[in-house]
């Protein structure tokens, strides 16, 4: 690990230390590393430098709203190649929270997520996208002898970067 020295003005440092206390960081270096990783990750994903990604899409919707629940389910089935898992929580009599884990080409993950969030009646939509190295070797080398366990894992084998 390399050591770097940075200069901060007092106000910024104070705000940073307050942030660290609130978030439970015990040292500044770890907080800086996390902030940097987060920003670099955002940048990578924004610029499509990450061809593959894992997405955590969350939103709230009213299941009484006409046709909405059906449309959301239909859309998930239409994108079954991206779906890893869907968590559905009945929050109260009307509202449902769904968390959908998706993985695949970043552009496709983003398109699906944005379309879901844009549905009328979908609220608090948020996509957290993490770039990932998708293990494509299983798909590209047809001569590769696959271990059964390895084969089963191939479909969900993603390694987050950094
Ligand atoms: Ni529900």
Textual characterization of the structure:
The structure is a single chain. With 162 residues, the protein is an alpha+beta fold. It has 2 domains: 10-46; 52-134, 2-Layer Sandwich (Alpha-Beta Plaits). Helices cover 42% and strands 28% of the residues. The chain contains 6 helices and 5 strands; from the N terminus they run H-H-E-H-E-E-H-E-H-H-E. It has helices at 10-23, 28-46, 68-78, 106-118, 137-140, 148-154; strands spanning 52-62, 83-90, 95-105, 122-134, 158-160. It has a 5-stranded antiparallel beta sheet with strand order 2-3-1-4-5. A hairpin with a 4-residue loop joins strand 2 (83-90) and strand 3 (95-105). The radius of gyration is 20 Å and the shape is globular. The protein starts with 9 loop residues before the first helix and ends with a strand. Residues 63, 88, 90, 96 line the site of nickel (II) ion. The site of nickel (II) ion has 4 residues, from strand 2.
- The average pLDDT value, as a whole number, equals 84
Major beta-sheet overview: 5 strands, antiparallel
Bound small molecules, by name, code or SMILES, are: nickel (II) ion
Tell me, briefly, the overall form: globular
Contiguous low-pLDDT stretches (5 residues minimum) are 137-157
Q: How many DSSP E strands?
A: 5
CATH architecture of the largest domain, by name, is 2-Layer Sandwich
What's the CATH C level of the largest domain? Alpha Beta
Helix fraction bin:
40-55%
**How many whole angstroms does the radius of gyration measure?**
20 Å
Q: Number of domains in the coordinates?
A: 2
CATH fold node name of the largest domain: Alpha-Beta Plaits
Number of helices: 6
Distance between the termini: 14 Å
Strand content: 25-35%
Secondary-structure-derived class:
alpha+beta
Give the SSE string: HHEHEEHEHHE
Strand order in the largest sheet: 2-3-1-4-5
